[in-house]
Specification:
The structure holds 2 protein chains of 2 kinds. By secondary structure, chain A is an alpha/beta fold. Chain A has a single domain (2-103, 173-256), classed as Rossmann fold. Chain A has helices at 21-25, 60-67, 89-95, 111-121, 126-140, 155-167, 185-201, 212-218, 236-240, 247-256, and strands at residues 2-12, 29-30, 33-44, 49-53, 75-80, 83-84, 96-100, 173-177, 205-208, 221-226, 229-235. Chain B has 2 domains: 2-35 and 177-395, no CATH class; 51-164, D-Maltodextrin-Binding Protein, domain 2 (3-Layer(aba) Sandwich). The model of chain B has no long low-confidence stretch (mean pLDDT 84). Chain B is mostly helical. The chains are: A alpha/beta, B mainly alpha. The interface between A and B is medium-sized, with 34 and 23 residues. Chain B: This is ABC-2 type transporter transmembrane domain-containing protein.
Amino acid sequence: MIEIIGLAKKFSVENPKKLSEQERKDPRLKGRFFHSVIDVSLTCQPGEVLGLLGPNGAGKTTTLRMLSTALKPDSGSVSINGTNVLSNPVIARKKIGFLSGSTGLYGRLSGRENIEYFAKLHGMSQGQIKQRIESLAELLDMHTFLDRRSENFSTGMKQKVAIARAVVHSPEVVILDEPTTGLDIMATQTVLSFIRGLKELGTPVIFSTHHLDEVSELCDRVAVIDQGLSKFDGPLQQFTELADGSLHGAFLTSIEQGK
Amino acid sequence: MWLVFFKEIKELLRDRKTLFFMIALPILIFPLIFGGMAYFTAQAFEKAESKVLKYAVVNAQYAPELAKDLVQSDKFERVDIGDNTDYAGLIKSDAIDFAIVMPENYSADILQSGQLTITLHLNDAQLNMVHNRVNALVQKYADEYQALAFSTLGVSAEQQGALLNPIELKQISTADQRENWGEKIGGMLPYLLFILCFQGAMFPATDIGAGEKERGTLETLLISPIDRTKIVLGKFLTIACAGATTALITVISMAVWGLVLSRGFAMQFVTDFMSQIGIVDFVLMFLMLIPLVAIFASVLLSISIYARSFKEAQSYMGPLVIFVIIPVMVALMPGVELKGGWSWVPLTNVALAMKELVKGTMDYFQLIAIFGSTALIAVLLLGFCVYWFKQEKVLFR
């Protein structure tokens, strides 16, 4: 399971004059620091899919980056199945599979080489890698293009390889940062059915999104962040009850809370 | 670390653009420079040699034999200019190529007439063979008249030599041919090597830093269970390797083409010159490039990882070339030698040392200062690069 308590992260602002009008009005800007995430807490149990919601600039990506160890939080704690992510980042990384909507591939390497590279970085043996890629290729239907250079892949192909790369080391949790943003319908379906597959395997998944239909289709839990603060963290049912079953209404209500 | 290194190398080798800059350019640039220069110079000389020159002769009546020779030669064409003595104007308007004025005292008996002065008006600013070609005709008569005068006076062959040049100041340079040419060629060598090294490292550096950010693969790499120091070292080695490869290919290409072309054009001195530079000197030159390449690689990687995109990285790197050129230019200035303080000035000392190695006058003790200062700077910069790579504000701009 994943447990995040009281996460906070601030960024120093080098030149406050360069900020946009909207950014300057943001209450999170204090002096030379922008407090992107102030206090975020959430939990996700095994087999659960958690949808992370929030308006643009709410701090979703920063939260997920801290969770995936790319960024170091200023305070708070993150634990994955009992491992403290902050004190043991390298161990934690072996447990995490991370994918974002903007992830790219190494264009001059083939799909297989892209996956292999990250498998090797995860310390997998040659035999393990071969076996794992074979089963992932089967699962994601990648046999036709796996050995071609990835620079000519379609968005859907790229996304499939990116997914395979993210889970090649069989992570204990999977984190997805807006995995469907910018994808066409087919590629989106690939991502969604992949999440469903993880759910069946009992792997907890956290993903951020702006598509509420994805939330209603897949999620067991919902967490809402606005202006760096946790506004909601609970089961999907409890979330929909905020506004008589309407997800849009529930989302707006949760943000209005505490204002 | 090696994992990152081998993957980057593999990617690099699959890129045509990089291969062109790393391998093809240094291989082709030398035959182009050497061959092109040899070809155009030979062409120009041949043209000057074979061109039919238009001339005017004044006072031809004093030296009829010489005037006749000029007329008979098919490489000269006489133009009648009448009484016009504005030679400069005539030459400028292309009416004639030169004017030759015979002296009034012209005579075969130089003991009577004294020294004969034939005046030649020509535009000497351009490449021309006028003096040579006219002199070839004149010399025949000069020798003839001289011999005649000596025999009239009854001067023996030994006396003739002493008379013509009573005291000869014989000069024996302790600088051999290698030192002489080394000064000229050795000064240019680091210029070329530095820039090619830098260029060779520049493209891979942009690609594996800023390129990785632009493609969105950096984040995935950062959350792989590998220490960030190892990522930096892997990438650093790739860039350094690319730079060194370019330099190595450059040196080899220069040596090979130098030999090939010198054989082809029968330029014996180039062959001798090349054979005098020992293997040890070549190895030392290459060894000195290693810390230098390390400096380039750390600086380039730091810039590349800071930049948000390919374009941004390139616009930062462009002006850097000047900082590579300036130290080499300093090394070419007169008075700057590989002594004392200068042997501690980074880049300049390497440029100076290369010159010394080519000349064969290297003071091998200076190597300590050169390697010391260059390696120290390289280590410091690499340290900075590692530190830089761990900064969130650099990675997530």
